[in-house]
């Protein structure tokens, strides 16, 4: 098949590489330069967007902010309604989807401007997280409100653009579910992944390392089922959750979803017989979803560092991925997957390498 991916960042490149590995032809459309690219970004291809859309059997994406001209011109090449997917770039629509699907999430309300936000802050009875409705990622466009904070100052700052105010959740840990839904509605999910963030940005993920209670996995897959059925979704989608514990009982609250492949699924490139990228290609092209075989794997992000030390490239238990992006503090420029026996050894790897691999923004 011929697949056109919207976006030419690392996710697009890894999707394209996987597509090619399955015998498909793949092109990336850069939404930054408005050009169609074959997989090696250095080469230029003299194909217009209209030609690439006509060429493609199917259009997919690495990021859900699909430009309006592609929505219009490629509508029948998508396997689901792309406008619906794009609407989820607005946190208000995303939270409404959770409520509509009766998937538990942190209680929330919207504000349009500083005045509305100020009212919310004055009435707040517990700490809040404020999130700009649009454009936030890696913890950007977020503010914390604690009851001792000055509401006027914060409302001025955070209320410059519309957003949501949600309860701050005292979570026990963060996990994500990465899975795929195929055209016939069958689903295939990896076990819940434990994620650790530093300053709002994913630092590392533990794939198939922490034991997962059946009950929690079922809750997560039920949320996945409801959300993807409602979107009539085809392909890989990730759900980020907070694990909260009341007494001995653990339950999940959805934080946000990513209707695409996701950073917390990168460990599957090493730790699974079918990576999240392969899984997406299978779902897109109507291949059966696999039976998964998994090996415990740590995924350590490379953030802002200018290289991955040679010792890691040499190590027999590691697989290094470098995205060929200019490093700056807080920017994800690569990741290292590490086969590791258990949580203790994973944490030792983190203790040894995270500081060298991660330069965070202030
Ligand atoms: P991503 O890069 O994952 O898309 P993002 O910028 O969209 O991130 P969120 O995932 O909403 O932002 O938040 C980033 C992190 O901030 C979360 O992983 C979590 O650690 C923390 N956080 C967000 N919302 C809350 C909340 N309501 N209560 C407590 N912590 C929160
Ligand atoms: Mg996000
Ligand atoms: Mg997130």
From TrEMBL:
GO molecular function: 5-(carboxyamino)imidazole ribonucleotide synthase activity; ATP binding; metal ion binding; phosphoribosylaminoimidazole carboxylase activity
Transcription regulation in keyword set: no
Role description: Catalyzes the ATP-dependent conversion of 5-aminoimidazole ribonucleotide (AIR) and HCO(3)(-) to N5-carboxyaminoimidazole ribonucleotide (N5-CAIR).
Descriptive protein name: N5-carboxyaminoimidazole ribonucleotide synthase
Top EC class of this enzyme: ligase
Pfam families: ATP-grasp, PurK_C
Pathway participation: Purine metabolism; IMP biosynthesis via de novo pathway; 5-amino-1-(5-phospho-D-ribosyl)imidazole-4-carboxylate from 5-amino-1-(5-phospho-D-ribosyl)imidazole (N5-CAIR route): step 1/2
Entry's family note: Belongs to the PurK/PurT family.
Top-level taxon in the UniProt lineage: Bacteria
GO cellular component: cytosol
Residue ranges occupied by any ATP-grasp domain in the UniProt entry: 95-285
Keyword terms, alphabetized: ATP-binding, Ligase, Nucleotide-binding, Purine biosynthesis
Binding site for ATP: 91, 131, 136-142, 166-169, 174, 197, 255-256
Catalysed reactions listed for this entry: 5-amino-1-(5-phospho-beta-D-ribosyl)imidazole + hydrogencarbonate + ATP = 5-carboxyamino-1-(5-phospho-D-ribosyl)imidazole + ADP + phosphate + 2 H(+)
Subunit-structure text: Homodimer.
EC id: 6.3.4.18
InterPro entries to which the protein is assigned, alphabetical: ATP-grasp (IPR011761), ATP-grasp_carboxylate-amine (IPR003135), ATP_grasp_subdomain_1 (IPR013815), PreATP-grasp_dom_sf (IPR016185), PurK (IPR005875), PurK_C (IPR040686), Rudment_hybrid_motif (IPR011054)
Protein encoded by which gene: purK
Cited NCBIfam families: PRK06019.1-5
């Amino acid at each position: 098949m011929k697949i056109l991916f919207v976006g030419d960042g690392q996710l697009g490149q890894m999707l394209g590489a996987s597509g090619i590995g399955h015998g498909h032809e793949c092109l990336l459309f850069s939404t930054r330069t408005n050009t169609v690219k074959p997989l090696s970004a250095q080469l230029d291809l003299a194909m217009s967007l209209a030609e690439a859309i006509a060429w493609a059997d199917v259009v997919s994406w690495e990021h859900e902010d699909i430009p309006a001209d592609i929505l219009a011109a490629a509508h029948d090449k998508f396997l689901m309604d792309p406008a619906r997917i794009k609407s989820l770039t607005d946190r208000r629509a995303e939270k409404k989807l959770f409520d509509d699907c009766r998937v538990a999430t942190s209680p929330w309300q919207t504000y349009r401007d500083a005045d509305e936000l100020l009212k919310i802050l004055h009435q707040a009875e517990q700490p809040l997280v404020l999130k700009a409705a649009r454009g936030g990622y890696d913890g950007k466009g977020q503010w914390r409100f604690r009851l001792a904070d000055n509401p006027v100052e914060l409302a001025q700052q955070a209320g410059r653009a519309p957003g949501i105010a949600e309860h701050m959740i005292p979570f026990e840990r963060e996990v994500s579910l990465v899975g795929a839904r195929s055209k016939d509605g069958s689903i295939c999910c990896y076990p819940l992944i434990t994620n650790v963030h530093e300053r709002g940005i994913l630092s590392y993920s533990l794939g198939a390392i922490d034991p997962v209670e059946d009950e929690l996995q079922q809750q997560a897959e039920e949320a996945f089922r409801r959300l993807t059925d409602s979107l009539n979704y085809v392909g890989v989608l990730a759900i980020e959750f907070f694990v909260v514990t009341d007494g001995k009982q653990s339950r999940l609250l959805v934080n946000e979803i990513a209707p695409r492949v996701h950073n917390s699924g990168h460990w599957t490139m090493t730790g699974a017989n079918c990576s999240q990228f392969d899984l997406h290609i299978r779902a897109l092209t109507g291949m059966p979803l696999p039976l998964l075989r998994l090996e415990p794997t740590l995924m350590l992000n490379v953030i802002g560092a200018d290289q991955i030390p040679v010792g890691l490239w040499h190590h027999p238990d590691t697989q290094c991925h470098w995205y060929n992006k200019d490093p700056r503090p807080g920017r994800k420029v690569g990741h290292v997957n590490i086969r590791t026996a258990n949580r203790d050894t994973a944490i030792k790897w983190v203790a040894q390498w995270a500081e060298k691999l991660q330069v965070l923004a202030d």
